[in-house]
Amino acid sequence: MIRYLRHEQIDKTRWDACITASADNMVYALSWFLDVVAPGWQALVEEQAGQYITVMPLPGTQKMGFPYLSQPYHTHQLGVFTTHQSSPGVREKMLELTTGRYKFIHSYRFNKSDTGSLEQLQDTYDLVARYTRYLKLDKPYPELYKNYTRDRKMNLKRAQRANLSMFESDDIEPLIEHFKKHIEHKVVGGVAESTYQMLRDLFGVMQERGVAQLIYTTSGGEVNAGCLFFKYNNVISYAFNSADEEGRVANGRTLVLDEIIRQHAGTSYTLDFESPMIEQIEHFYASFGAHRVKYFALRHNGLPLYVKIIRNLRMKVYRTFFASGVAEEV
């Protein structure tokens, strides 16, 4: 039987045990990660013999008086996490319960293990195919390097000739301040200070658990690029980055990504570039030899007609005034 649990009803020890035992044991679904990015998160849980055997995190809130579900910032994928004991058809049951509970769902993203089941449900639910880029690092570095495109190899050589300094750091403030100065103005609608504070808190928690890696490049003592990675369960997630004009011209992020690949070559790690749906950025990640991986995002609008009309008008005004904005990786 599947139950909806409010935040205070969730047994986080049993929750994390279920995530760890699932095929897609990813850091975003662990209780301590969710506590930072979605305080008060709820869940659907299937139990057996006192243990959680299937779970679905629900970072839900209230907007305009209606239950609202969306993907938290800094969280690439969530979805349904199943163990070998999970009941047949459990994903379909959880989708039915989720769309019944939340009147509005904005791009709730499922993990790749959900993909096969969700493909069968596209006629029933508004499921949008999305793609990320994965690069398996199980080969020696020279073999991985061979799969770089010609342009990426040339840009890496340019970065090496640019005499950039590259160093690891435990201080995220330069990255945040750099993003505010050079990228934030390009983000449609801007970035709230609470989103930056969430990143600070998340970085602190990840540092405590030894799963964060932050690398900067500098020129003349000034930061021109920075990249944050989360490392968990043999996956390296490219979580957040920033580069100014000098960093882009000097290919600072190319240098950092190549260093990550070099450091972990010949291991069981996979680099997840967390590709956004922006062709130019996806092309950049593909140039490292990364392959496409499909997953789904759920949308749902069960709002009353008058609320839909008001929301559509607001979105039309929003797009009119912010149409010139350029989305970046956040």
From TrEMBL:
Q: Which InterPro entries does UniProt cross-reference here?
A: Acyl_CoA_acyltransferase, BioF2-like_GNAT_dom
Keywords in alphabetical order: Transferase
State the superkingdom. Answer: Bacteria
Q: Which Pfam families match?
A: Acetyltransf_6 (PF13480)
In alphabetical order, the GO MF annotations are: transferase activity
Where's the BioF2-like acetyltransferase domain?
Answer: 154-269
Protein's UniProt name: Acetyltransferase (GNAT) domain-containing protein
Record the organism. Pontibacter chinhatensis
Organism lineage reads as: Bacteria, Pseudomonadati, Bacteroidota, Cytophagia, Cytophagales
